[in-house]
Design brief:
With about 1900 residues, the protein is α/β, with parallel strands linked by helices. About 30% of the residues lie in helices and about 15% in strands.
């Protein structure tokens, strides 16, 4: 047991567990941070940690939180951190932030243009003040105290000057920070506050420059919560069967003078991402690919310092007192210069390590390795002898100096858990490279398991995934460690070699070098050197000596740009020529080029004629009119169900942003849509996007362009992110500023491309401009523009889902899955084939896999790699593959001996490519994509393959295309002509510009560029050859992006080929899969397979490729007497799994073929062989054995098919076959326990890093949303990522409100347009339609009714058409028009007067029964600028009106009671007003108690342009969201008083939505009342208020009659108002023209209020708008008739006329009749009209009549609304009055049978108007004395209706009227007693006969106070 340092370090401290757990939960609840601080890190990492001597003094702290947390950790666990005591400033000095104590401004923005004296040796730097997050303070600092380019060598201490007041000589940063008023709460540190260098720009202004690279500052993740947990030290594993017991404690530290944990340097110093395996090199700000061995910090579990190793005597943290600077320490560093470019790279990086996110990595940049102790000499010629550069990983303890030939080794500083690492290395195969993810999981599992028992004590409730462990176990001692390591390595056949040394690592390294030179480590891939002695800690390191592993690791340190430079260098300097000469020696016949030349000379004439005949055949055939391939279909543009679903999801997200209370998007203020699509700088992608845009028709639909669209116009909407992008983007920004009412959608397609920070892109990385996305899309103008929405679209969203992302998780839209619980959600006839489907095809039980690797190719590459150690493996791989393709082409053309110099896979590809066009009458063929990321190598490959093709005379057979992202597509003229014929293109100058347009062209597309940039490939793609992709770049995005090239939508139909394919396999005794035919169907069997269970569906995968590849191989084997010897003997040994799986199948297929095919012998003449290859080598995508050759197979039942089938047709119906490097294949096909591919758990992107290794593993069951949340919690961007600084802007919420992310599967466009492009273009379309819809409303558009019923004096006109106001005297002469003309009362009873009786008969004829209940007619109208709005409208002008201030606080309001007595109700009415503070000026309050006294009223004589005199009351129910209460625009900004009248139970919801509106709350007794109650109370309140105001103002000397008596009562659906302007300038007086225009409500009200003698009118109203208004209706400008919906009411004149508070319907008609009968004037302005919006909720619809007994909704017919008294009828839960009105409307004919359609004998209705339905007419009379009634002489009535008669109705009054014999009577009273009293009082029994059974009541329970009816017949 080792007990050095604090041996308890790293254990759980059980005494603190509960405390920490509690604190952690509390912190998580309070924190806005996505990552809660792990509990275990607080407990487990409590050991105090020291810093190495290299870190003393210049430790960088990137965040205050991190520093504070460190301080907290250092203090006692129970005591709070000690806050920093700031010295009080001197008396009278300035303490303002941003100014020095002398009062001088130091802010950069203020003094950037001033001249500042800078002493020699000083630099200007920017300091950050915590109180001014957006400002930098300018300081002058001695550069000796600042770090150098590598983040080192800053002198301790400080020396600086104040640039404001000029004070010099500050020697302490504490003193200086006080002087410049930083006002810190923590210890001042220069590293924390001096952030940026300041530089002068071209204009001479001082600007922010690069970041000051304090050591580690730029590389640590900016997370306070994970900094400490990341430094966890893992303990050793359990016994694993190697020893009796293992340790539950961590491995004790290797440093005797420091506590445990020191080796994981600096919890809070630097956080280095785990992007790679062991190593990761980053140049020029790009991180290296991640394929290396153990990466730094093992994802922060073990975390090395930026500068590398720790020596055994480092300075502890400042709280430690015992350390003195004189302690022996080794502070020298050393650099390794691997090649001459390294130093230049550093300079190019701006001279600062800040551009290296992984600074712990060495290689060509610089080595952070620090040597100590004796030196070790690296032997000369090491590389030459060993054929590899060993990679050395520093483990624990001291590391010796390396000297001598250090160019031949690659040291990497790395801390590892030694024994676990040995276990891991032992189990790796010879062709495997260690992966950091694997090692991390081992460490994590080990840590979890060893601490599980202790954790479980405190987490009983938490289910654990691990089994119970045995009791505590003893630790491994340093003496046991080498022994255990040796034991572990003993079983691995010496692939891991352990060297144990006694004194120092130098001894072991020397030994290792010696063994290497002697060749004794040939089989050894890893050498582990352990130096363990009793009195010291363990020193260790690991050396990678395996040639393959060392090569992969060293190459993985190259950044993408350096990778290209290195390859280019090797090509330019001729280093590859040795490779070429080596290839020449392989061919026994001599140089391949000579062979080609010889073949060319011999066969020139024959080949050219025969091939040209076969190739030109299609054209000739077409001309002759014979059969032509019809499979070439050009799909028309159509929207797929998927796309529509995605577009609708995008739209709903946009709407939710607009609906949120944050006011970030005011959709109501936009009139149209504009957009800009940003694409990567690939010419093909650019043209592809233009193509989709052109054919979508979206530009015409949005109205952005006119009919005749040109390509130049379309180009305005797509921006390539290249050097010229800024010009186009500037225009876009200018347009957005100039058009605030246009919503601009900025679409960032392929959004994972170039996420480089603009700051880092200042350094030249690559030839392409990087950082453009950040510079343009993240610029301030875009962020702040309220009319720009940014939509990021990508298949790989991971890099946009970090802790610092700009995109809210709520604004992410994921492509929907097509199935849910086995149900097909979108009826698609296409099925998507993506990564998971490709992986599934590799599982056993499937047909031949779609994902493959080429074992013979890999073996040759590995052999050559050993032979040529100085060549980059990409060069070797490319040259080998070119060789294979060349040999395969030669073999297919008849040089059969060349089959031995290619691989079976390459031969298959080449055969099918060459034969494909010959099997289609039109010459359609296959595409082969050959992916070569490195552009120089792609050029070499193109040149070579082009040359071979020419020599073989295949130039007309297939095309070779070099696809370079920076240029367009170039193909031969012959192929252009073919494409034009197929695509029916007549344009002479047409050239293909996208890969999609190459559909059907037989070709090899050499696809170059480091990453695909969104190019889509055509359906004729058959093979995707990815054998040359950069397999050292192992990040998830890179891998999925490459595989995304092959992703495919295939048709879901069944094909005839199935029978053939099955037959081949049926004849094989040992079948490939089960006997169930379903499992052997072709991949595209959608219609059948999708109906099966999900499990079955998963297993039906591609089989066609199996048979075809079998047939091709089988026929190859038939041709040769034995299978071809593909490579050398060493190659034959290496067979891959896929080949092993296939052996049986191959065998079976061979026998099958031999049964059905005549043997093809080698004696065939060479020339004939060219044709015979068509038989022997069948196309992989055509039915096996079908051929046009005469020597094809004899007819056999199972093989009867058409003689030739188009290869392209078949290729388009099945996914392509993908070839991968073995390394990538293994990673992609290996899965974890949940079935998740290993590739998914790799680091998601090269510019992000894991926040912590304390993270849960991903699971296959995770949805896209869950994956997003996982990455948002567990990844942070590196400094080179554009989101890196997103958290440093001083805001808690870093999400941008108008930013969305759409992620969908890759490559789904193809020609089918099922992809993301189509989806977002469809989104633009429906968004545009919605905006138009938002600016439109459905308004009622109905003609006035009953216009044929004219008054006798109808032709008489009282006013001229152009009169503005009515003349009072003329108006008094106008008769009242009793007829209702409002179309909403079409189903109401006609009101008769004597004069109408003559033509009222027409009524029954003109009305059709079926018309009465149809939906009301509406018209869509565009909202004008004077419209009234609902709560969804947000615009800047009415923010204040609506009560939303910038801080989104609801306006304060107060509740006031207002009581008045009303005799009719017999009690005092108490109303409540809710009055916002901003509206209190409209009211009068008593001075002492602030009691509400009255509402202020103006004077009749007041005149003001900006003031509306009449208070507006709007009764409303159920429309808190949809009611049109925003009158700001309607009133044109004029001051007005608007009161919402609401029911008590709705008060809270209305107040929430309308916080700045005055509310009048009705008493609770009116909660179930109708609109009559609201109108009644409004009128009574207003009259009472008028009296109060008259009394109040009379004291001020104002006459009572001068107080303004009018109020406005408006419906809550009045949306716009119009005025008719009449022009009477015609020759004759009667001639006039009129126009209608939309005007503000302010204009109309002010016009009406200005009417002469206005106070003589009781009611003033206006027409309802109709599009069919005719001239006759407005010829008379004023009418005396009914007014509705929007009225001005004179409460003074109508004092004695009341609304009926019980009414639900027709209460306005009832009130109009009462007003007229009282002799008052009702005037309708015919030149004004109101538009009413159709609102589907609230209003009268909110009254539901349902049974009182049962809650279940049962439809109840109106006939059940009344019943006999005392019956057992079901009672209804509805007001009695409502039941009465509804019953009479539908069933009044039961009471008045004689009245039905008898319009000349109406029902006499006394003192009220009730709607008896449209087929019964009524005649209204008032019983009041002196009232105006129609003359009833000569009228005979068919019925009498007495409704709640009062004392004015007397017997004598009724006896004046005459009734038909048999006429019926209906008396309605409140109770049965009143019914009897009424009958007696009115002496009804004299003329009417009553029966007991004629008594009824409404169907109410007794407590609901039913109404009672009595009916009788006239005697």
């Amino acid at each position: 047991m080792l007990s050095m340092g604090n041996s308890y370090a790293g254990q759980l401290k059980t005494t603190r567990f509960e405390e920490v757990l509690h604190n952690s939960i509390e912190a998580s609840l309070r924190s806005n941070n996505l990552v809660p601080r792990p509990i275990f890190s607080q407990l487990y990492l409590e050991a105090e940690q020291q810093l190495s001597s290299l870190e003393a003094g210049n430790r960088a702290d990137n965040e205050e939180e991190e520093e504070e947390e460190e301080e907290e950790e250092s203090s006692e666990s129970s005591s709070p951190p000690v806050s920093y005591q700031v010295k009080p400033p001197p008396e009278g000095c300035c303490t303002t932030d941003g100014f020095c104590q002398a009062g001088k401004d130091l802010r950069l923005v203020s003094i950037s243009n001033e001249h500042i004296e800078v002493p020699s040796g000083f630099l200007l730097v920017g300091a950050k003040s915590p109180n001014l997050p957006d400002h930098l303070l300018v300081c002058a600092v001695d550069k000796r105290f600042l770090p150098d380019d590598n983040g080192r060598n800053a002198l301790l201490g400080f020396s600086g000057n104040c640039v404001g007041c000029g004070k010099k000589g500050f020697c302490y940063f504490t003193e200086f920070s006080n002087h410049i008023n930083l006002k810190l709460t923590t210890q001042p540190k220069k590293q924390k506050h001096l952030k940026y260098y300041l530089v002068r720009n071209a204009q001479g202004a001082l600007t922010k420059g690069s970041v000051i690279c304090w050591k580690g500052a730029e590389f640590r993740g900016r997370q306070s919560s994970t900094s400490t947990c990341s430094s966890t030290l893992f303990q050793l594993p359990e016994s694993s069967g190697l020893s009796g017991s293992t340790s539950s404690e961590p491995l004790p530290p290797a440093n005797p003078s420091a506590p445990a944990g020191t080796q994981q340097t600096a919890a809070a110093v630097d956080h280095i991402p785990s992007t790679a395996a062991f190593s990761s090199a980053v140049y020029n700000g790009k991180e290296s690919p991640k394929q290396q061995l153990m990466k730094n910090n093992l994802s922060a579990l073990t975390r090395p310092s930026v500068l590398g190793t720790l020596t055994n005597s480092g300075p502890p943290k400042k709280r430690h007192k015992g350390w003195s600077p004189e302690s022996p320490s080794s502070t020298e560093t050393w650099n390794l210069q691997l090649n001459p470019q390294a130093s230049n790279r550093i300079k190019n990086d701006g001279g600062s390590l800040s551009s290296l996110p992984n600074s712990a990595v060495v290689g060509p940049a610089s080595s952070p390795m620090v040597g100590s102790g004796e030196p070790v000499s690296v032997p000369d010629n090491l590389l030459k002898i060993c054929k590899a550069k060993p990679v050395i990983f520093k483990g624990h303890g001291n590391f010796p100096y390396l000297c001598g030939n250090i160019n031949d080794v690659i040291p990497i500083s790395e801390e590892m858990q030694l024994l676990l690492t040995v276990y891991y290395l032992v189990q790796l195969a010879a062709d495997q490279v260690p992966l950091i993810e694997d090692l991390e999981q081992i460490f994590m599992r080990s840590w979890r398991e060893s601490h599980l028992s202790e954790i479980r004590q405190y987490q009983q409730a938490v289910p654990q995934a691990f089994p119970q462990l045995p009791s505590p176990i003893t630790p491994v001692t340093s003496a046991q460690l080498p022994w255990l390591a040796g034991l572990a390595a003993s079983s691995c056949n010496d692939s891991v070699h352990i060297i144990e040394c006694s004194y120092s690592l130098a001894e072991g390294l020397s030994e290792m070098f010696k063994l290497l030179i002697e060749g004794k480590l040939i089989k050894t891939n890893y050498v582990v050197i352990i130096c363990a002695s009793r009195n010291r800690a363990i020193d260790s390191c690991i050396v990678i000596t395996g040639k393959y592993q060392a090569r992969v690791l060293s190459e993985s340190m190259l950044s993408p740009s350096d990778y290209q430079k290195e390859v280019n260098y090797q090509l330019v300097t001729g280093k590859v020529e040795t490779l070429g000469s080596f290839f020449s020696t392989l061919c026994p016949e001599g140089d391949i080029d000579l062979l080609l030349e010889k073949f060319y000379q011999e066969n020139q004439g024959h080949i050219s004629s025969s091939l040209s005949a076969s190739v030109n055949k299609p054209t000739a055939v077409n001309g002759a009119g014979t059969a032509v391939c019809t499979s070439y279909e050009i799909e028309r543009h159509q929207i797929r169900p998927f796309q529509l679903a995605v577009a609708q999801k995008l739209l709903s997200h946009i709407c939710s942003i607009a609906d949120s209370s944050t006011q970030n998007l005011d959709l109501g203020s936009f009139e149209k849509i504009d957009f800009l699509i940003c694409v990567p700088p690939s010419e093909v992608t650019y043209q592809q996007t233009l193509f989709h845009l052109w054919h979508s028709g979206i530009l015409l639909e949005l109205g952005l362009e006119k009919e005749h669209l040109t390509k130049q116009r379309v180009e305005q909407y797509v921006m390539k992110l290249d050097a010229e992008a800024q010009i186009k983007f500037k225009i876009f920004l200018q347009n957005s500023m100039q058009n605030p009412h246009t919503l601009f959608v900025l679409i960032h397609d392929h959004a994972h491309w170039d996420l480089m920070s603009a700051m880092h892109s200042l350094y030249p990385q690559t030839e392409l401009p990087s950082g453009l996305v950040d510079r343009l899309l993240n610029c301030r103008e875009v962020k702040e523009a309220p009319n720009i929405v940014t939509l990021h679209v990508t298949s790989f969203p991971y890099a946009l889902q970090t802790q610092h992302t700009h995109i809210s998780p709520y604004n992410e839209i994921h492509w929907p899955s097509s199935y849910s619980n086995g149900v097909d959600l979108y009826h698609e006839n296409k099925k998507y084939f993506g990564l998971s489907e490709f992986i599934e095809s590799t599982l056993s039980g499937h047909s031949i896999p779609l994902l493959r690797y080429d074992s013979s190719f890999e073996a040759m590459v590995m052999a050559l790699g050993k032979r040529f150690p100085r060549l980059h493996s990409a060069v070797i791989r490319t040259f080998v593959l070119i060789q294979h393709y060349s040999a395969a082409m030669m073999a297919v053309c008849g040089l059969s001996q060349m089959k031995n110099y290619t691989s079976v896979e390459t031969l298959e590809i080449t055969q099918n490519l060459i034969n494909s066009s010959r099997q289609c009458p039109s010459g359609h063929g296959l595409m082969v994509v050959l992916r070569i990321p490195c552009i120089p190598l792609a050029a070499v490959a193109y040149e070579r393959l082009y040359n071979v093709r020419e020599r073989l005379a295949l130039e007309d057979n297939f095309e070779i295309i070099l696809g370079n992202p920076n240029s367009g597509i170039t193909i031969g003229k012959h192929f252009v002509e073919q494409l034009k014929i197929w695509q029916k293109i007549e344009d002479v100058d047409w050239r293909p510009q996208t890969y999609l347009e190459l559909e059907g062209l037989p070709c090899i597309l050499i696809f170059s560029g480091m990453d695909p940039q969104g190019e889509s490939l055509p359906r004729s793609l058959r093979y995707c050859d990815l054998r040359l992709i950069n397999s050292s770049s192992l990040v998830r995005t890179s891998l999925e992006q490459e595989l995304g090239l092959a992703a495919y939508f295939v048709s879901s139909e069944l094909h005839t080929e199935k029978a053939v394919v099955n037959d081949v396999l049926e004849s094989d005794p040992e079948k490939l899969s089960s006997t169930d035919n379903e499992d052997e169907e072709i991949v595209t069997e959608g219609s059948a397979s999708e109906k099966r269970s999900p499990m079955k569906r998963e297993r039906s995968r591609s089989h066609d490729s199996a048979s075809s590849s079998l047939s091709s191989k089988a026929s190859t084997f038939c041709t040769e007497s034995s299978p071809p010897q593909v490579l050398s003997n060493s190659t034959e040994e290496t067979t891959n799994n896929y080949e092993r799986q296939k052996q049986k199948v191959d065998k079976g297929a061979q026998t099958t073929v031999s049964k059905h095919l005549p043997p093809v012998t080698e004696q065939l003449d060479m020339k004939q062989n060219i044709r015979s290859t068509q038989v022997s080598i069948t196309s992989s995508s055509s039915p096996p054995f079908s051929s046009s050759s005469s020597s094809s197979a004899p007819a056999h039942n199972s093989f009867i098919l058409q003689t030739s089938q188009c290869s392209m047709t078949k290729a388009s119906k099945q996914p392509p076959i993908v070839f991968l490097p073995k390394l990538v294949y293994d990673i992609i096909t290996s899965t974890d326990s949940s079935g998740l591919p290993k590739s998914s758990s790799l680091l998601p992107y090269h510019s992000v890093m894991w926040a912590s290794s304390f993270r849960p593993l991903m699971s296959k069951m995770m949805t896209c949303t869950e994956q997003s949340l996982y990455y948002r919690q567990w990844t942070v961007p590196k400094p080179i990522h554009m989101d890196y600084n997103n958290r440093s802007e001083g805001r808690m919420d870093t999400f941008h409100p108008r930013r969305l992310l759409l992620s969908g599967p890759p490559q789904v466009c193809k020609k089918n347009k099922i992809g993301k492009t189509g989806a977002y273009l469809q989104f633009l379309s429906i968004l545009s339609r919605m905006l138009i819809r938002l600016t439109e409303v459905d308004v009622y558009d109905e003609e006035e009714i009953n216009i044929n019923i004219k008054e006798e004096e109808a032709d008489q006109y009282y006013h001229q058409p152009g009169d503005m106001w009515p003349d009072l005297e003329s108006f008094k002469k106008m008769p009242f028009d009793y007829t209702i003309h409002d179309p909403k009362y079409e189903d109401a009873s006609l009101i008769c007067s004597k004069i109408q009786t003559t033509n009222s008969e027409d009524k029954s004829k003109s009305r059709r029964q079926e018309d009465m209940y149809t939906c009301r007619q509406t018209t869509r109208m565009r909202l004008s600028k004077y419209a009234a709005y609902n709560t969804y409208h947000h615009c800047e002008q009415c923010h204040q009106y609506m009560g939303f201030n910038p801080r989104y606080q609801i306006y304060e309001s107060t509740l006031h009671a207002f009581a008045f007595s009303y005799s009719m109700l017999g009690e005092e009415i108490q109303l409540h007003f809710i009055i916002p503070k901003s509206k209190e000026h409209h009211f009068v309050f008593s001075q002492p108690g602030r009691q509400l006294e009255s509402m202020r009223l103006p004077l009749v004589t007041d005149k003001s342009e900006d003031y509306i005199k009449s208070p507006t009351f709007t009764p409303t129910t159920g429309r808190h969201e949809h009611g049109l209460f925003n009158l700001y625009h309607a009133m044109d900004g004029a001051s007005h008083l608007h009161v919402l009248v609401v029911k008590e139970y709705e008060m809270a919801i209305y107040k929430k939505y309308w916080p700045n509106h005055i509310m009048l709350v009705l008493p609770s007794i009116f909660n179930s009342a109708g609109v009559g109650a609201a109108h009644f109370l409004i009128k009574e309140l207003s009259y009472h208020n008028l009296e109060l105001e008259r009394n109040r103002q009379e004291e001020l000397g104002i006459k009572p009659q001068d107080i303004w008596p009018f109020i406005v009562i408006s419906d809550d659906s009045c949306v716009m108002w119009n005025a008719v302007e009449v022009d009477c300038s015609g020759d004759r007086k009667s001639d006039y023209t009129w126009t209608e225009r939309n005007v503000s409500l302010k204009q109309i009200l002010q016009h009406i209020e200005a009417t002469p003698n206005v106070t003589h009118y009781a009611l003033i109203g206006m027409r309802k708008w109709s599009s069919k208004t005719n001239s006759a209706e407005i010829k008379e400008p004023f009418s005396c008739c009914h007014v509705h919906d929007f009225i001005m009411l004179n409460v003074d004149l109508t004092q004695n006329v009341q609304y009926n508070q019980n009414r639900f319907t027709c209460d306005d008609v009832d009130f109009n009749l009462r007003v007229h009968s009282a002799g008052l004037l009702i005037c309708r302005f015919n030149h004004f009209n109101v538009m009413k919006k159709q609102i589907a909720v609230g209003g009268q619809r909110s009254f539901h009549i349902k049974s009182k007994v049962s809650d279940t909704p049962v439809s109840i017919s109106p006939a059940q609304y009344i019943c006999a008294p005392d019956s057992k009828h079901t009672f209804l839960a509805a007001p009695a009055q409502l039941l009465l009105e509804k019953y009479l409307q539908y069933h009044s004919h039961r009471f008045f049978p004689l009245s039905l359609k008898n319009y000349s004998h109406p029902v006499l209705s006394v003192d009220c108007y009730l709607n008896l339905g449209p087929q019964i007419a009524v005649c209204y009379v008032s019983s009041r004395p002196h009232s105006l009634n129609i003359s009833s002489s000569g009228l005979t009535f068919s019925g009498l209706l007495l409704y709640l008669c009062d004392s004015f109705v007397v017997a004598s009054f009724l006896k004046k009227f005459h009734f038909l014999k048999g006429a019926t009577l209906c008396v309605i009273c409140q109770d049965r007693n009143s019914l009897r009293q009424t009958v007696v009082r009115l002496e009804l029994e004299d003329e009417w006969q009553f029966r007991l059974r004629d008594e009824f009541q409404t169907a109410n329970a007794k407590e609901d106070r039913p109404l009672f009816f009595l009916t009788g017949r006239h005697i």
